[in-house]
Design a protein that fits this description.
This is MarR family transcriptional regulator. The chain has helices at about 5-15, 20-25, 35-45, 80, 85-100, 135-155; strands at about 50-55, 60-65, 105, 115-120, 125, 160-165, 170-174. The strands form two sheets. A five-stranded antiparallel sheet has the order 3-4-5-7-6, with helices on both faces. Strands 1-2 form a two-stranded antiparallel sheet. About 15% of the residues are buried. It is elongated, with a radius of gyration of 19 Å. The chain has about 170 residues and is of the alpha+beta class. It folds into two domains: about 5-65, Arc Repressor Mutant, subunit A; about 80-174, no CATH class.
């Protein structure tokens, strides 16, 4: 990782949501060109380190992935469904896990495997995430698919006891 990328990450840890211009001013000084910061922020976004999200003032803010607020892009053709996309739901869960002190690994996009694997102390959660489907039949199929994947993972090779909690999420205990 470049020195500029490290400085951007460090600055965003202290001042979440800064624009490229605001980052440039803090890191390189006022009147410096912001193109290097813009390029690195875009690269960090591609690498899933930073989310670039429109702030309430309309400017694009940079947020470290685990601190990014969930926002619907107002100009998106599917704005009503964006907040319910699978990655948006994963982000929301990751934000909650981070705030509650969990360690977690998220499989973004169409990456295969356990969607979210979280651990805290002796607790270990395997979380399967499904976004909203376009049609009611898809929503039913997504639920059944998620349930089937969770049930398959209840037979943990590490010999842990699995339970299906009352709030209908699968939890495993070591």
């Amino acid at each position: 990782m470049t020195i500029l990328a490290e400085k951007i990450i460090s600055t965003l840890q202290q001042f979440s949501g800064l624009t490229d211009r605001e980052l440039t001013n803090k890191i390189l000084g006022k009147n410096s060109l912001q193109q290097p910061v813009n390029s690195v922020c875009r690269l960090l976004a591609q690498r899933k380190v930073v989310n670039r999200i429109h702030r309430d003032d309309g400017k694009i803010g940079n947020y470290l992935l685990d601190t990014a607020p969930l926002r619907i892009q107002p100009n998106s053709p599917n704005a009503a469904f964006d907040v319910h996309s699978e990655d948006a739901v994963k982000q929301h869960i990751a934000n909650w896990l981070a705030a509650d002190g969990w360690n977690y690994d998220v499989k973004w996009g169409k990456t295969r495997g356990i969607d979210i694997h979280a651990s805290k102390g002796n607790a270990r959660w395997i979380i399967e995430v499904k976004g909203i489907g376009s049609y009611p039949s898809m929503r039913v199929n997504y639920f059944l698919g998620a349930l089937a994947e969770l049930l398959q993972r209840m037979d943990d090779p590490k010999g842990v006891m699995a339970e299906y909690s009352q709030n209908r999420t699968l939890r495993t205990r070591i």
